[in-house]
């Protein structure tokens, strides 16, 4: 299980962060709001009560989830049926059959995400209480299947989110990111998805 955490999490988190940083450069207003959330929670010292503060960074988590909706680290996956079954829509799945699902396609379906499915909108993942406190909205893992669902749900989901939050906020607090080109990068759906040519970016020190 520990080996799975390490191997499964290394490439997937780096893939997710690559596309996250790309989308953040397209939406500087979201970048500013993430920074404000970070400083409101921690002040200048990120290391103070870091685990709890990272968990409280709801907008950052929503932005990461929205990034993975559009550019999932694993764009497709398959399962094999141990025994025969029938899917909710009546489709028969025989014993030994391979069933493939496609998070990349599912994240771009108007039926699931509405007419604005193509927009990077972290607020689709948030609810705001009467006291203006942000909370993550519950989204079915069968709709957002990046971390899989049911008995096979990702064991390292929380660890991966904490890792990505820490890296993301550490980079954004120190540097302003600027793309070196306006060309739209190509999504490569390998075992772990990649960005063709990587993400070429200029880093400007903030302070």
TrEMBL record:
Keywords: Heme, Iron, Metal-binding, Oxidoreductase
Required cofactor(s): heme
Positions that bind heme: 154
Top-level taxon in the UniProt lineage: Eukaryota
Entry keyword Iron: yes
TM region positions: none
GO molecular function, one term: monooxygenase activity
Keyword Heme set for record: yes
A Pfam family annotated for this UniProt entry: p450
Family to which the UniProt record says this protein belongs: Belongs to the cytochrome P450 family.
Matching PANTHER family: CYTOCHROME P450
Protein name as catalogued: Cytochrome P450
Organism: Zostera marina
């Amino acid at each position: 299980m520990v080996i799975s955490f390490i191997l499964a999490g290394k490439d997937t988190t780096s893939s997710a962060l690559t596309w996250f940083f790309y989308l953040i450069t397209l939406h500087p207003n979201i970048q500013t709001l993430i920074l404000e959330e970070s400083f409101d929670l921690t002040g200048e010292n990120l290391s103070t009560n870091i685990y709890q503060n990272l968990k409280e960074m709801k907008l950052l988590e929503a932005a990461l989830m929205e990034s993975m909706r559009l550019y999932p680290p694993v764009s497709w996956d398959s399962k094999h049926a141990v025994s025969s079954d029938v899917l909710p829509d009546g489709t028969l799945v025989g014993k030994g059959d391979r069933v493939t699902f496609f998070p990349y396609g599912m994240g771009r379906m108007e039926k699931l995400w509405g007419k604005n499915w193509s927009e990077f909108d972290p607020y689709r993942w948030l609810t705001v209480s009467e006291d203006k406190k942000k909370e993550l909205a519950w989204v079915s893992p069968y709709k957002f299947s990046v971390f899989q669902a049911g008995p096979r749900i990702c064991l390292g989901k929380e660890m991966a989110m904490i890792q990505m939050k820490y890296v993301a906020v550490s980079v954004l607090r120190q540097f302003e990111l600027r793309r070196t080109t306006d060309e739209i990068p190509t999504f490569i759906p390998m075992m772990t998805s990649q960005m063709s040519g990587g993400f070429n970016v200029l880093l400007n020190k903030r302070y």
